Amino acid sequence: MKNIAILGSSGSIGQSTLEVVRNLPLQFRVVALSVNSDIVKLKQQIDEFHPKLVCVSDPLAAARLRSSLKSSVKVFCGREGLDELVKDKDVRQVMVAITGSAALAPLVSAIKNGKEIALANKEALVMAGSIVMRLAKEHKVLIRPVDSEQSAIWQSLGGQDVTSVRQVYLTASGGPLLDLPRSKFKQVTVKKVLQHPRWKMGKKITVDSATLMNKGLELLEAMFLFNLGVDKIKVLIHPEALIHSMVEFNDGVMMAQLSVTDMRIPIQYALSYPKRLANPLAGIDFYRLSKLHFAKPDLGKFPCLGLAYQAARDLGTMPAVLNAANEASVERFLARKINFLSIPKTVEKVMQRHSRIIHPNLDQIMSADNWAREEVRRLTCSLN
Ligand code: MG
Fold first, then answer.
1. How far is the CA of 11 from the centre of ligand 1 (A)?
2. Cα torsion through 327, 7, 10, 335, rounded to 10
3. Residue 167's beta-bridge partner residues?
């Protein structure tokens, strides 16, 4: 029986993690849960999974939850509260499923406390990949990726050293706008962008799939997780999203990981590694599947991917700036303050204005992040 903490339990990955636990009640026990503010969902989860500790980031929501609970669960709030969760001696593995840069502090703390990490959040690695990986090495913590592409690379590598890798194909479904002509991008609505053809995910990541920034963030994520040079990673459009990524070794042999498009598969593997446990999902039916498609991504149509490659070459504080500028622009788009084409335009402008620090510490990364968000606010206010 493994005791786990789920940070971000009301989100898409958090809920899928609970489904995995629900199916494997003899293997996993939930001892801690955290949400940002959704205490309605958290209450249902407390009733079903009986955690020992919970954290609600929003202090007002935390107070409301405390006054309405009958059970003996301890309720923490804010960043300090998350720290209590990841430090707890009963927690063996932490699922980091918080979206955005808010995951960085609890991730670092969980590593320093020597917890096993299942990492679903990509922004923390993008921002501070070299620091996070160095800390993980120091504390002998293996970071088990949950992102389907990173899980695929991890599984395809099969423990081989990166020096035996010729290149990695990072596959991309292409998102909801793959076949829409670029001339229509300016008018594209939030609703249309949120209709992803293959994956059911949170709003921010679905917008990132539409701009291909999601793949750009995954490029950076893969570089840090597997210590790969940027030129060894090729993005490959694969609309069926059955091959989740592939590794080509020096001898030309390729290993790919395939499975049905369901996040419960990589989540479960991150929890159960090195074991492979049963799940109720059906496999791929190759008799019914006639074709798989592949294409080179169109960087003219999806400039965000090109910007991510640029940040991956620049490194230092640039990936943090790319990430923060993107996060803030996507927020503005979801709030219907800017149009779809303004997302890459804004990110590019902010990157151009940034004075990069080559070997930043965590404070410098956080201030680059804050600076980039402030720049987006300034640029997009003058747009309106
Ligand atoms: Mg992914």
1. 15
2. -10
3. 248
- Report pLDDT digits (tens) over 320-349: 999 999 999 999 999 999 999 999 999 999
Tokens of 15: 């809920």
Give the number of other CB atoms < 10 A from CB of residue 4: 24
For the segment 86-142, what is each residue's pLDDT rounded down to a tens digit?
999 999 999 999 988 899 999 999 999 999 999 999 999 999 999 999 999 999 999
Looking at the domain covering 2-141, what would its CATH class be?
Answer: alpha beta
CA of 187 to the centre of ligand 1 (A): 26
Residue 245 CA to ligand 1 centre (angstroms): 10
Check: CATH 1.10.1740.10 for 316-384? Answer: yes
Q: Which two tokens stand for residue 231?
A: 């030129």
Whole-number Å distance, alpha carbon 148 to ligand 1 midpoint, is 5
> Where are the chain's structural domains?
2-141, 151-260+283-307, 316-384
- Centroid of ligand 1 to alpha carbon of 90 (angstroms): 30
Cα 263 to middle of ligand 1, angstroms: 9
Distance 230 CA to ligand 1 centre (A): 18
Burial class (CB in 10 A: 0-12, 13-18, 19+), 376: buried
